[in-house]
Input
Amino acid sequence: MGNNNFSLRIIMALLKSVNTVFGIDATYWNIFSISEDFKNKSLEVVINGYVSKDVRKDNLEPCAWQNLTFTGDDYIKDATREAVYLALKAKDFSDAVDA
Output
């Protein structure tokens, strides 16, 4: 058997600095929820923004959140978290870095 020298990297969050209503930047963004409407072919996604990855890992509250909708050509049937992160990078988080 051959030796495969590759690793599969799963996106678990995105890094992007976004100023919040609190006057601080949310830099670590992760998916909080995904809700799919099969009949109307719509995907509702809530992402939470944290000051840092450490704040998230310490189970502290987010300082920001965004509700995003994917419909029409942007709709992702049977969306996985990975697919949603890729869609976010194609939409509102195009300048984000994988975390």
The radius of gyration is 15 Å. The chain has one domain: 14-98. Residues 14-98 form one domain. Strands lie at 14-19, 25-37, 42-50, 64-71, 97-98.
